[in-house]
Amino acid sequence: MIPTATATIAAMTDGPHALLIDGERRPSSDGRTFTTHSPATGQPIGEVSRATTQDVDAAVTAARAALDGSWSRTSPQKRARMLGRLALLLEADADRLAELETRNSGKPRWQALAEIRQAVADLDFYAGAAQHLYGRSFVVSPAVLSYTLREPVGVCAAIVPWNYPLMMATWKLAPALAAGCTIVLKPASATPLTALELGRLALEAGIPPGVVNVLPGPGSEVGEALVAHPGIDKVAFTGETQTGRRIATVAAAGLKRVSLELGGKSPNIVFEDADMDAAVLGSLWAIYYAAGQSCEARSRILVHEAVYERFAEAFVTKAAALRVGDPLAEDTQVGALISRTQAERVMGFVNGAVAEGAELLTGGAVDGQIGDGLDAAAFVRPTVIGGVRNEMRIAQEEVFGPVVTLTRFADEQEAVKIANDVRFGLAATVWTGDTARGHRVAGRIRAGTVGINQPYAAFPGVPFGGFKESGYGRELSIDALDLYTEIKAVLVGTGAKPQNPFGA
Fold this sequence. Notes:
about 500 residues; Aldehyde Dehydrogenase, Chain A, domain 1; 15 helices; about 35% helix
């Protein structure tokens, strides 16, 4: 049974949760709210103010005033101290925020806590990076010296998804603030609560009003208005590819900078010489973390034909033993999907794969009761589908659930060909005992991140982003600051005589 909410959490979920505009908690301009739910129980956990286009205009205006007023001229050292304070506040509040994240997203609490700790690390990383926005100098001629400055790009719109609500918010907020930009953050409608808390903590950390604004509301209204707003200079979006296309199209009308981190259909390649135990355990993590609701989930396991049966047997045994249930229980390994609708969508892919001739080896929908107070229809068991051909729909389209496919390959050339034969290119993993082959295959795979003999894909300081229809731009690293800064060239005349090209 889900534990009774603590008094602190209960107080937080007594609505409505207000918008954050110009340092003030405000109701929406028309007073409308929406209800946010616990995916695991289906029960409401809070009322949230629903932003309007008028609120978008107010937030962008506040962000512009803060940018022009003082923030863009705040010294890098001061910005770094504020980001550092925000990291400390987030760390101190991690337990409470993890419980709130779990209730709002359905993921196991220990996973939510790990993501908040990464959010702290993100802020720490960019606090340091804020002080290293270096320019360059260049002697054009004996009479002309040039140097460059890195200046903030301006007011940024950040649109974040529901699968990593707080962590993804910091992926965008931290580099924006480090560069001296201001930001309007739009969390996903399904998971707005921790983003609002992040905005509150930013004020507590001393970040001036208007620098961080938070607007929950539907993407079709709030997100669209943000992307189209003439006061927005840069848009950062994480989400599905079709929405990314729409954002790129709308932003193009204003020639706004855009970075997109979109969908994935990432391969996990197991060669015949791989450490089989490591490959099985790492592959479990690569797909079933966050119930498979990760853009970089390695959802296609490609296995050399010589070890296919051995790998499949071991992997299916481990997958079937993963504990599915109450996200707040300490021993839960796979929690709820974000909604019943998402679970139905996932099962549609599973049933479709079986209809195409693949084999359901384990998993599928949860039958009967999964736990007291839990909505079984929002859960899907860790699922393995064998005998999958790469042309099948389930091998080509993003499922976004705890479902993995197994496909045989005969040699390295075929493995690389299958790995690249999708429209996405976000991440990949290679398992092999041959060091040279690991590096060789990593170089041939069209993906933004490739792991060799380890399943992790995202660390502060390591560039994260995709090739092909997985988007463009990089996050989590020093490279992200290129997206939030403009380069200005300054030319200085240093000659002893006047420059007189007309010979006047």
